[in-house]
Design goal:
CATH class of the largest domain: Alpha Beta
Low-confidence stretches: none
Pfam families: Amidohydro_1
Keywords: Hydrolase
Distance between the termini: 25 Å
Organism: Lactobacillus kalixensis DSM 16043
Largest sheet: 8 strands, mixed
CATH architecture of the largest domain: Alpha-Beta Barrel
Protein name: Amidohydrolase
Structural class: alpha/beta
Number of strands: 20
GO molecular function: hydrolase activity, acting on carbon-nitrogen (but not peptide) bonds
Number of domains: 2
Mean pLDDT: 97
Shape: globular
């Protein structure tokens, strides 16, 4: 076993609001895992030493809400095909790793490209974060994810359901394919052209069925939920996470705390639409976001301050929102009311717990993978430090960028 020590750094382990100064940690080069850490002079017998020059080290980012492979919304000239989605996904994943993202949960990808890439990776490795795939989401007819893709627009991006039995079949189909996460479209949304954010789409019975079936197979369930009633149904049904949460109520905040339901707000997706969407998106979508953005931040802020479990998600793949810019969500979480530590924890242990990978990811503790970033400035003082363009990115102890 060969070992490398990374030394002379300020280490943010990720489990408490403090830095370990003059820190070092040892990585097993074969497994890519941390085996020991400390501060001061490292006297361990190692094969290689890396001087980090008093820079700041933190865990790689875990993004719990992504859509890899998405094409530009402004380029309707080229059809969305499995080939185009795969091509874009591979680029998105590499760029995401360069941006500091070392683990993602996929929340809906056409043609199950994310599922297929994870299976392919076992024999044909490619650069990018580790991946918990979902494949096709579940939507009602006319719902938020009812739209056509393919060379001739002859395939739907979603499983379209009309009953709990339809939902059970859809979950089982995704399980058979190899999906590890189920994406439910509980309400209308911003980018869909035929509904409003408070349109309640999947029924309570349908979501209960999805959760029961998915959890029996060790899959996680996330719900796109923006309107109050759809959020309530999702929480009562027992989803693992509410995505977005524009109008989460005080009642559901308390229920989420009691049940341990996570909130993955994806604030940056909304912020980018408000700041840059005028004249580039449909007036319908742009105005919807403008109408709801203040309530979005206010309700998310209330949930954060109340102590709801928080994960970092960005809705990567949406308008002007590439995976590589995931660190921008940290700034938006702070804008909504999170402390710097709460935002950073969401991007580490929070997302890792939601994805059920916290035994090996999410913090820089012995026994976990050495996925880490090296920064010039202290992220606990200003989370914008994570946006550093030339930051060092390590995955399993190997420098990638």
């Amino acid at each position: 076993m060969t070992k490398t020590v990374f030394e002379n750094c300020n280490l943010f382990v990720g489990t408490s609001e403090k830095l370990v100064s003059d820190a070092w940690f040892v990585v097993d080069d074969e497994t890519g895992k941390l085996v020991k850490s400390g501060s001061g002079q490292c006297t361990e017998d190692v094969d290689k030493r890396v001087d980090l020059e008093r820079q700041y080290v933190m865990s790689g980012l875990l993004n719990a809400h992504t859509h890899i492979g998405s094409l530009s919304l402004n380029d309707p000239s080229f059809p969305t095909t499995e080939t185009s989605v795969t091509y874009n996904a591979l680029k998105n994943l590499r760029d995401g790793l360069r941006g500091g993202v070392t683990y993602i949960r996929s929340c809906g990808v056409p043609f199950d490209v994310d599922v297929k890439l994870k299976q392919m990776r076992k024999k044909l490795p490619f650069e990018g974060p580790e991946l918990k795939p979902a494949g096709m989401p579940i939507s009602i007819l006319g719902g938020h994810a009812d739209y056509m893709v393919g060379e001739n627009k002859d395939e739907n991006v979603s499983h379209l359901v009309n009953s709990p039995d339809d939902v059970r079949r859809a979950v089982r189909e995704q399980f058979k394919k190899g999906a590890e996460n189920v994406k439910l479209m509980a309400t209308g949304g911003i980018m869909s052209q035929g509904d409003q954010v408070d349109d309640t789409e999947l029924s309570l019975e349908e979501m209960k069925m999805a959760v029961e079936e998915a959890h029996s197979k060790h899959m996680t369930v996330c719900a796109h939920a923006e309107g109050r009633l759809g959020i309530h149904y999702a929480v009562v049904a027992g989803v693992d996470s509410v995505e977005h949460g524009f109008y989460v109520s005080d009642e559901d905040i308390e229920l989420m705390k009691k049940q341990g339901t996570f909130l993955s707000p994806t604030l940056i997706a909304g912020r980018l639409i408000v700041d840059h969407g005028k004249g580039k998106l449909s007036d319908f979508s742009y105005q919807k976001m403008c109408d709801h953005v203040d309530a979005f931040y206010a309700h998310v802020g209330k949930a954060i301050k109340a102590g709801v479990k928080l994960a970092l998600g960005t809705d990567a793949g949406t308008f002007m929102n590439p995976l590589e810019n995931s660190s921008k969500e940290l700034v938006e979480l702070v804008r909504a009311g999170a402390s710097n530590y709460q935002a950073l924890r969401a991007a580490g242990m929070g997302s890792a717990e939601l994805l059920k990978v916290d035994k090996e990811y999410g913090s820089l503790e012995p026994g976990k993978y050495a996925d880490f970033l090296v920064l010039k400035e202290n992220p606990l003082e200003d989370v914008k430090a994570v946006q550093q363009e030339d930051k060092q990115v390590y995955q399993h102890g190997v420098r990638k960028f």
